[in-house]
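Objective 1.3, modelling of assemblies. Example input:
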Amino acid sequence: MGNKVKYINRNMVKAKEFPSDFSEYESCWAIAAGKDGRIYVALCSESKPALACHLFAYDPKKDKMLHLADIGEVTKDDPKSGRAPQCKIHFGLCSARDGTIYGGTHCASPPLGERYFGVYETYGDPQKGFRGAYIIRYNPKTDKTSSLGMVTRHEGIRIMTIDRERKRLYGITYPRSHFFVYDIETKKVQDKGRITENNPYGLVCDEENGNVYTADDTGYLLRYNPEKDKIEKLWVRIPHPAWRFWELESVQSMIKSPDGNKIYGVGNTSSHLFEFDLRKERMTDLGIIWGKDDPQKVHGPYTSAIAFGMDGKLYCSVGVASKTESVGINSELKMGRSFGRDPACHIISYDPETGKKVDFGALQIDDRPVIYTPQAATGLDGAIYFAEGDNPPYPPRLIIFYPPKK
Amino acid sequence: MKDKSKAEKKVRKGFPFYLSKGKLTLRELRSISDNEGIPESEQAITSLTVGMDGRIYGGTSGRLAHLFVYDPGQDWVADLGRVADEEAIYHSLVTGSDGKIYGGTMSMVTKNHKGGHLFSYNPYKEKQLSYEVFEPAAVVDMGIPVKGEGINALTTNDNQEMIYGVTSPGGYFFSYDIKTKKTKLNGKATNGKVTRSLVCDSHGNVYGSRENAYLFRYDANKDKITNLDIQLPGEKGREYLVMADSFTRDNEGNIYGGTSDGYLFSYNPQEMRIVNLGKVIRQYRIRALTAGKDNKIYGIAGEENGIAHFFVYDPISRGLTDLGMPHVNGTPKLWTGYEFDSMVTGDDGVIYAGESDRISHLFIYYPVWEKER
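Predicted structure (tokens):
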């Protein structure tokens, strides 16, 4: 990081705040662009007890943030019940072809009266534990959000994706990392069993053939083949520098290219961008997305939110690792949100045609640095929307980036 | 790397729920030369036995059942191959007096299953074990003891010349004489829930649970099954749901068992006295037990789709201690085990636990031994 911070052009970014009634909430995780041009985002609590997640939609035409649903009410799981609440939709918002938005709920924050949530210690506990994850559905035509029922008992949904062609949802549970299939039409769920130890944050569906891709803890790509009903290990690894521990190197983010023939993504301890050609089954390391990696740090530059712009370029926000981190399996995995007062994340673009990368500068809006953005989505208006992660003491915002016009 | 909640990080350091007493490692179910090994979905280790050669033999369940071996001396695992087209070897792997490994199969999924087979594997006829995968395993099919019934549990007598088994769903009790190579149907052991485990006392009597959580005893000398008026401990009223989940026997001949409701008990066959030793965690099930070389009883508690905990019972102090969740911290891989169904003590006192998940490992636990006992 240079001594002089280059900030992003103020005309290229905007922050949209949530209503002040929700000031207790500290993070946004899931974000999805709707067919109606609205941006759907989940406002979450990770640390404050007894708070249920809320679903919002940002309407770019009206420049309004609309409250859609209280997920505690939708799932009939009262956050004040004493159990761990439905406090999050992690990477689990999906936009269907007909405009419906699907979400998978998650656990993280403590139950009422507790200071922390121990997912293992309270697993299955009817008094303090998490009841289980639900699939929720928002219908933009009726403006109603409903629950489609619980899909996994005692576990949250870490990540979920959709096969719009076959009308299926795929997800991975937390903490036991089970892979599940939810059929939207029949409303039936199938648990396909455990696929890894922890932390696969990338999950995409190749809608041409229905195959679903993620990665295990050691960075190997996994593919669920619905025709064979089989999870296959591809013996292709997420690229990363040689000094990184395999045990920590899973996938942090994955998206499909606009033509649907490739997957782009990043590993979770390095910011090596990769391209996986779905047709040729070939992995290409596109190098570190921005900044420098350091063997003395648990993390390299940190990338989580990536999205393709209307111009065919890949946009992402990249954070930097704390200087106090140490290398080792037992080291705390400090994510961008833990960077404290280190420089804000930068918005970077990558052009798959030319390989050119552009740093638009540090993301600071209204004199507030943006430390971490967990997920991004591209709106029909061409803007890139970033969900803002926790950055205490500030409440989270929806960050809007307007890519330069040609 | 566990992704603890932010709030948890603030008030807790480390991972107090993980097993921390003793050392724990694991081995994947593949040989060094074979990247694939036993396929995922066929790896659930549901049976373990210690061979006369000191090696650990395992039987798996899933889409197909496999037989595998772990050699503690050379520290390698070899897949011995799938056991025909069978789906499960559940609590049904024993070592015979002839050094062969005997097993029983059952169906987990297939309807109208013709019945579980008894089979044997002869370790002395192995070829290039660590580098060759036999497909299918070089086992000898000894037939179906009870038509239409799966084999739910096997045990042997002390001299390992007799093998005893119980079937599911019918609860038939059968025996196999290794010397005469004859299988015999000895009768019906239960009209209710079928025991998930069998144990033999030093006099050759075999025990299991029957309907309403009562014990039955097979008397080998009289070739007779007796319904004992002894009930497994547990929550009053739930007896009709309860069965014996696991058994082991210590060096002094005391039997220890675990119930499907998660209670540990001891049973003295001479005094015909059963003692409730309590419940170690909130969950149901005690899915595996083994007597350690230190005369302590080690076990695994935790229900299906739950969170497994290792525990130890000390007969001297009468202390029942939760050792925590089995978690291997990076060597050879980072992994937490949630589901287990088998546990044995190796000749060297090392404890082996069979993970029974879609992706499974042989966990190797080195307990802390006290010098004077």
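The two ends of chain A are 29 Å apart (CA to CA).
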